[in-house]
Amino acid sequence: MDTLFTGKIVTYVEETTSTNELAADALKNARVIEGAVFRASNQTQGKGQRGRVWNSLPNQNVLASYVYFPSFLKSDEQFYLIKAVSLALKDLLDKYLMDKAKIKWPNDIYINDLKIAGILIESTMKGSYMGSSIIGIGLNVNQSEFPSVVNATSVVLETGKGCDLNMFFSELSYHLERRYLMLRENPKSLDSAYENALYRKDVSSTYKIDGQTADRITRGVDNLGQLILEDENGELNAYGMHQVRMQL
To answer: What are 129-150's pLDDT values in tens digits?
Structure first.
């Protein structure tokens, strides 16, 4: 699958601490064009959301960080970039997994109740608009055992078939650019697809909210990217990602 600019320049290394750090160092020390990608076969300190570590066995999965410059987005619109990336991963996985992929707010992709991909976006701001964004993606493809993770899956576990990692990377780049171009044209064009793809939407789930455990119904996400939950009285409240976490 061809692209206009995404993945035209790829920096590949066998091993690094994390591809996001590799991309960040490049942005500091050199001119990086939009759509440049930094890939690795292995990460020794893969970065996840909320300070977590992304565990991956060498040469088994797609580990990549994409550099974009979404200067058309205001600082309070940056969650739309997460929407675009999440939908791109769903687009790719749906081809192989028959529309099973769901987006677990704010930045994971699940198959049933198992995590198959994670997203970590690190951005800079220029005034009231976004500057550069490093989009880190870890996608489980050929890994069949996850000794340190209890709720993980992969494409090979779900389909019984191994995949060519370079082909998967190429397809990911295509879908990511497609959703990014939609984002650039009209951010709100992503809203409906994102809402429909939310994991456990309109279903009661157990959350930890500001340190307290409670059952809530997931109703959607607001314009700031906050999760909207309905309590037992039918009242809707919005929570930021540092306030709430689903308990699985």
So the answer is: 999 999 999 999 999 998 877 7
| Local structure of residue 76 (DSSP, 8 states) | G
C-alpha span between 102 and 41 (Å, rounded)? 26
The CATH 2.30.30 domain(s) of the chain lie at 204-246
Count CB atoms within 10 A of the CB of residue 203: 9
Structure tokens at 224: 């700031």
Q: Which CATH superfamily is domain 10-196 in?
A: Bira Bifunctional Protein; Domain 2 (3.30.930.10)
The pLDDT value given to residue 50: 46
Given the candidates 2.30.30, 3.80.30, 3.30.1370, 2.50.20, the CATH classification of the domain at 204-246 is 2.30.30
Residue 224 CB neighbour total at 10 angstroms: 11
Q: Where are the beta strands (DSSP E) in the chain?
A: 10-16, 37-43, 62-68, 101-104, 108-111, 114-126, 129-139, 204-209, 212-221, 227-230, 236-239, 244-246
Q: Omega of the bond prior to 147 within 30 degrees of 0, cis? A: no
Q: Exposure pattern of 63-97 as b/e (b: 16+ CB <10 Å)?
A: bbbbbbbbeebeeebbbbbbbbbbbbbbbbbeebb
* HSE of 245, CA atoms in CB hemisphere, 13 A: 8
The two tokens of residue 126 are 């220029």
Quick check: 52 pLDDT over 70? no
Asked if residue 221 lies in contact with residue 195, where contact means CB atoms within 8 angstroms, the answer is yes
Is the pTM value of this prediction over 0.90? Answer: yes
